[in-house]
Amino acid sequence: QCLSVLIHCYTVSQDSKPLLHCVSAFQSIVTLCPNSEPPHHGTLLIKGKGRMEEDAEQVTHSWVPSWFPVWCPTSMAQLKAVEEKILAGIKTQFDCRYVSLPSNNRIWTLTVSPEGGAKRTPLVLVHGFGGGLGLWVQNLEALSQRRTVHAFDLLGFGRSSRPPFPSDPEAAEAEFVNSIEGWRAQLGLSDMILLGHSLGAFLAASYTIKHPERVKHLILVDPWGFPERPSDISQTWNPPIWVKAVAIVLGRFNFLAVLRAAGPWGPSLVQRFRPDLKRKYEERFDDDTILEYVYHCNAQTPSGETAFKVLAESFGWAKRPMLGRIHMIPKDVPITMIFGSRSWIEPSTGERVKSVRPDSYVETMAIEGASHHVYADRPEEFNAAVTKICDSIPDDHLSLCTPASTLPPSSSSSSSSCSATMPAPSNLSPAPASLLSDSVV
């Protein structure tokens, strides 16, 4: 209600100064506290066709002052419960567990392994901002028919550890990349097909720059953070006045702070402002399961969200744009970019990546009718496109190596003993990259 009043005042007066004073006062009340996580104590629980690791509830410092402990109706136990409900619909055998990193952080991981799929290069799925592995529920079975698929919650998101991140953009990005590499080493993967969506695509590209020998094909789905921020943003972005007001109010906070500040009204905010998410999964759920999942993913301590704010400039752009660095990926690493034809992501990104990598395999394709969440808007078309990309990659070796946790003492704990060969660019037939912009956030 307070947010609505502030936006109304700005809309009427067109004067941002009183609004900024109110925001500063509110900011002094809502204090973000660092997160701590207890040691892991858990057992294994067989649940349906999936093996779930049951872990003791994580006790974290609240993001609100201790004198207001029950303001947000959320907990890690509630997040776990709604995720289990989502994954219960998967008919293929799967395994969920924590992967411990050398940093003592843990990455919540789901693995789907078909019979005979171990000899094929595994596919690794990296979700976007505010998401979690549960959002891939419409893709996991189709993509794992002929190869192992791994999906994990990024550090700071979902059920993974939520540590404090550095306040420097380069250091925060490196923290994400190092966690992905530590995760890969602990699983003993020699190489992988790396697919990232939105923020996950940005981090997947950053990972490939640092560890190109581990990536056989990079798939970027509606990637965030690639183009530079325009010098005059009004030339490319002229939203309604209420959107400008929201940007001023929320620009001082983490991007989803209002969700937590709303307390018991937080779940209804998700239902009110993101009804599209419910529609994307309506063939699997006829209730608010997905909206509850999104709420509980983002009502916890905002660790990854805070890191994203460090990386981002006005939400839509990155402080360290990827277009200025994508050429650093070796030219023998093939890249495919998949866009939604109705997405808000900059339409020219695919062609600009091609222009800075003239001697490399870079293809773009658009999925008609899909917005930013391509994998959920048109799951059948998305699954078919990704399967075609994966099947074009030579799989003539066992894509496994000795996990870091089983190496002899003389070996480094952050690496694994293996070798990988990079394939020549594949012969794909991409769809036209005709992109339109919309207002989906």
Key features?
alpha/beta; single chain; disordered C terminus; 10-stranded mixed beta sheet; 15 helices; 441 residues
Straight-line N-to-C gap = 21 Å
Order of helices and strands: HHEEHEEEHEHEHEHHHHHHEEEHEHH
**Share of β-strand residues:** 5-15%
Report the total helices. 15
Spatial arrangement of strands, main beta sheet: 1-2-3-4-6-5-7-8-11-12
Structural class: alpha/beta
Q: What percent of residues adopt helix (DSSP H or I)?
A: 25-40%
Outline: globular
Low-pLDDT runs of 5+ residues are 5-14, 19-48, 56-69, 406-441
Largest sheet: 10 strands, mixed
Number of strands: 12
Average pLDDT figure: 78
* Radius of gyration, taken over Cα atoms and rounded to an integer in Å: 21 Å
What does it look like?
There is one protein chain. By secondary structure, the chain is an alpha/beta fold. It is built from 15 helices and twelve strands. The chain has helices at residues 2-13, 16-29, 76-87, 140-143, 169-187, 199-210, 241-250, 257-261, 266-273, 275-280, 289-298, 303-311, 349-356, 374-377, 379-391; strands spanning 42-47, 50-55, 94-100, 106-112, 123-126, 149-152, 192-197, 215-221, 312-313, 317-318, 335-340, 362-367. Strands 1-2-3-4-6-5-7-8-11-12 form a ten-stranded mixed β-sheet, with helices on both faces. Strands 9-10 form a two-stranded antiparallel sheet. A hairpin with a 2-residue loop joins strand 1 and strand 2. Helix 5 packs across helix 6, helix 5 crosses helix 12 (303-311) and helix 9 packs across helix 11. It is globular, with a radius of gyration of 21 Å. The two termini are 21 Å apart. Mean pLDDT is 78; it is low at 5-14, 19-48, 56-69 and 406-441.
